[in-house]
Design brief:
Elements lengths: L2 H5 L17 E2 L2 H4 L4 H16 L1 H24 L6 E4 L2 H11 L7 E5 L4 H14 L2 E5 L9 H9 L5 E7 L11 H10 L3 E5 L11 H4 L3 E5 L11 E5 L25 H7 L7 H4 L1 H9 L5 H24 L13 E5 L17 H10 L1 E2 L2 E3 L6 E6 L6 H14 L4
Parallel strand pairs: 1-10, 3-4, 3-5, 5-6, 6-7
Antiparallel strand pairs: 2-8, 7-8, 9-12, 11-12
């Protein structure tokens, strides 16, 4: 990795490649991603093709095109194409698995205290419906080493544990969980793992076959920079008969024998706009072409920039870095002073007045996150190819102006 690139005042890819507002410093790629112009144009081409002859496209061509898209994505993820299906987003993937599995009173569903709120809500829903119990493993933040993450999770496993729902990268704190040893030990104890990998594809190197989790779902619209509505669900071959799509459609009683019931059911949920999913291979190719070293260089570059940003901000605020660098990908969380009593989060997306001030006064889009609960709050920065070192320096100066006592 060329460290001079990280220190450069220029982004690693031209900002004009994206449609982001040039008047805003966008440091929140982790929320919804950003799709390059070229990929959005390609998606429009797919839509035009669909609308030119809808029956030809949807009935006669779409399945083969989706097969090709799944095959390209599978190579990127280290997976078999027949173990992958497209879903609208990772939240849908989590719900798909949870709503398919059968639980009973006395079963325990394991989750951490840093699970993404939408996924935790889905877990609560199925547990309440079945009379099962949600067990919360409290992992610390800040922390010093992997044992502080692994030990509380494994200590919460009992003979009644049926499933563990784990983030690959925590949304609130940007921590990359040590999934490989966790999944291996949970498998050894007979506990299936559902991985909420919303942030992982394009941020971290993945080999889903080697990981061996029963279920893994991830987004294409975040770090892969595919259009919104592109996500996947990976189901281990021995578990596929258990998993049904949220929408039961024609595949449920198809007489076809040329593909698995898993692919038949997920391949046709009804009339849908598949153009986001069909654009995923092009997004993988296009983003990978933006640096000489391809995706490995891009992941390393974004991670190095996130670590540099964390250092800048922690230094400006005179706070310690909350975790070792090895647990950081392209997101980093920085502790902020407690929120004043009248500065609670505002609905619908729990934005703090500080977040509004940074956007309105300083033209910086960056999230302020309450965790574990108000008044505690964190600033979470993202690093993508259109970001550069000076943007985080500007953020540091803005924080010094907005936070009391500076």
């Amino acid at each position: 990795m060329n460290t001079a690139d990280i220190a450069s005042s220029q982004p690693a890819a031209e900002p004009q490649l994206w449609r982001l507002d040039p008047e805003i410093i966008f440091l929140n790629h982790g929320a919804f991603g950003a799709c390059p112009r070229r990929i959005l144009e390609l998606q429009s081409e797919w839509r035009a093709r669909m609308e030119r002859q809808p029956l030809q496209f949807l009935v006669r061509e779409l399945e083969a095109q989706l097969d090709a898209a799944r095959a390209a994505l599978a190579v990127f993820l280290g997976a078999a194409a027949d173990d992958l299906v497209f879903v609208p987003n990772a939240t849908s993937g989590v719900n798909t698995v949870l709503r398919s599995l059968e639980f009973k009173p006395g079963d325990e569903l394991l989750v951490t205290n840093q699970e993404y709120n939408a996924s935790r809500n889905a877990l609560n829903f199925v547990a309440e419906r079945a009379g099962a119990r949600v067990v919360v493993a409290k992992i610390p933040f800040p922390f010093r080493n992997a044992d502080e993450l692994i030990a509380p999770i494994l200590a919460a496993v009992t003979p009644n544990t049926r499933l563990a729902l784990l983030d690959h990268v925590t949304s609130q704190t940007g921590v990359v969980l040590p999934l490989t040893p966790l999944v291996a030990e949970l498998n050894r104890q007979g506990v299936d793992t559902l991985v909420d990998g919303a942030h992982a594809p394009g941020m971290l190197p993945l080999n889903l076959t080697q990981l061996g989790a029963a279920y893994y779902t991830g987004n294409g619209h975040k770090w892969l920079c595919a259009p919104k509505g592109a996500a996947f669900l990976h189901v281990r071959r021995d578990k596929q008969k258990l998993i049904r799509p949220l929408t039961i459609s024609h595949g449920a009683n198809s007489p076809r024998q040329d593909r698995s019931r898993f692919l038949l059911e997920f391949g046709w949920p009804g009339t849908w706009d598949a153009t986001a999913a069909l654009s995923v291979p092009a997004a993988i190719r296009f983003i990978g072409s933006l640096r000489p070293g391809g995706w490995p260089e891009i992941m390393a570059r974004n991670r190095a920039l996130a670590l540099a940003a964390r250092k800048i901000l922690c230094s400006a605020l005179s706070v310690a870095e909350p975790c070792p660098a090895e647990f950081i990908g392209s997101l980093a969380a920085i502790p902020l002073p407690d929120a004043p009593p009248d500065a609670g989060p505002q609905l619908p997306f729990n934005e703090y007045p500080l977040q509004d001030a940074l956007r309105l006064k300083h033209r910086i889009e960056v999230p302020v996150i309450s965790w574990p609960a108000p008044p505690k709050r964190w600033l979470r920065v993202s690093a993508q190819l259109y970001n550069a070192w000076p943007q985080y320096e500007r953020l540091a100066k803005a924080l010094m102006q907005e936070l009391p006592g500076n």
